[in-house]
Amino acid sequence: MLIIVGCTWILITQDWIRQQRTQEIELSSLARAQDEHVAHTFGKAEEALHSLADMMTYSTLPKEVLMRRLNEEAAEGLLQTPQLKLVSIQSRDGTVLLERSSHTDTPFPALPKPSLEYWLGNTDAKLFIHPPVANAKNSWFIPIERCIRNAKGEFGGSIFVLLATQDFYAFFRETQLTPQDHFSLLSLNGRLLLRLPSAHGEALPDFGAILSRAKQAHSQSSNLESSYEFGDEHHVGVIRLVRDLPLVVMVSRPTDISRADFLAMKQRLVSGVIALGILLALLSWLLYSDAKRHDTARNVLRQLNASLEERVSGRTAELEQSNRELVAFSYSISHDLRAPLRAINGFAHALKEDYGGQFDEQGRDYLDRVYRASVHMGELIDELLALANVSRAPLTIREVNLTPLAQDIIGDLRINSPGRNVQFSAQADMYIEGDEALLGNALSNLLHNAWKFTRTRALAIISLSAEEESEFVRFTLADNGIGFDMAHAKRLFQPFQQLHGDQGFGGTGIGLASVRRIIERHGGHIWAESVPDEGARFIFLLPRRAKVFRRRRDETK
Length: 557
Prior knowledge:
- Helix 1 crosses helix 6.
- The chain has helices at residues 2-58, 63-80, 116-121, 166-175, 207-217, 255-336, 338-355, 361-392, 402-416, 436-453, 511-521; strands spanning 84-91, 96-101, 128-129, 133-134, 140-149, 155-164, 182-187, 192-196, 223-230, 233-241, 247-254, 396-401, 422-426, 431-435, 460-468, 472-479, 525-530, 536-543, 551-552.
- By secondary structure, the chain is α+β, with helices and mostly antiparallel strands.
């Protein structure tokens, strides 16, 4: 319980720090957004003022032409910057030389006179921002003044623009994070230019003193934090100095808002601690009874494991016995069955040589069938032994290039059938990991199969290609042979199943079964696609890296 109370206190403390940090980040982000918006808006106004001031200072046009050009430039500036509502050019004594507005039906407030004393006392200053003014409809505007100096630097008048505050209202409503957030726009000396939500008629804090304290605490930063009293509430805020402008942006929020989530979490934690205290007593009782149950379960599990070990040992012994019987069966096929077959074959051959003349044509045909059947049975025995070896022999994994293997097999087939016109193509460098002997066996069976079933073609075409997929390499062996009906495709890789046995193509029906077992032992998969009399495609997938192997051969050997 002490650990729980201590952890709860730590969580409350950490949550308070996190809430403070969250408020700081939120207010800093909001202040940065308002800062950028203010800088952009006032920057547009400054560009328009700068353009007009340069024309007044450096133009050599006649006065009438200059006024016309200034009017056009003012209209273009109002059009490009919707926040600007009025442009006014006044002489040194306040005489209006030109005035252009964006809305003729909107009443505008009276503009202040040129700030003569300010411009004479600040010869390097270019911009002066006046306190906001309201028109008859209570719409507020911020007058911005820029002085006009002649080529000698003497003050000759001012250019005013009225900046509508409605745009600041809209932007702040879109970006504020809580309804209680406040936005204030101040001059560098702390004079309030704009406050959102509106603070008309309310007692305002001393922004000048707040700004002064913040600058002293953060003299090296443009992002200042401060807290102050406002009415009956205590506010925390972030102050940012607007770059290149004599303005300050301040975003604030009542501290009660920032504490609301913390207080709710604190209440939840305290309630949780009380509930945990109640549960601890129940848990202590449950632990005792559960320990007894676990002891009983462990004893049962121990007995079950002992029984499973006995079963595994028995199954292992059965499997070893089965393997020994399979080896003995293979030995019996290899030796015991071959002896009578050799006798049948030898006597049939001797009978044909010594007494062939005493048989009629039908008798000699019977004798030939006996001889061929014995030879075929010997071939079946060899194929069965080869199929058993494919399933039982250990794999020796190494990197194998199937391209030269395929070319060597085709070369041997050409030697044995010199009269065949066969066009063979193999993709270069088809590397794969596997047992070289078994993969060569599988490839030999497939190529012999393609060679056999294309013998009716004047030009036989056989191709071998490879394509890399995600974790496999896809090999495709295609030919233009007689093909087969896909309705019988399931029989294709079964032992002793021949789809064309009655068409004089021969074979034992073991080759493709061996191919399937070799591919599956390498963790792959094989299937065939064909259309009768339009050739066949044998497709097999092999993993790039062998998944099943006994040992990996040293590549340097």
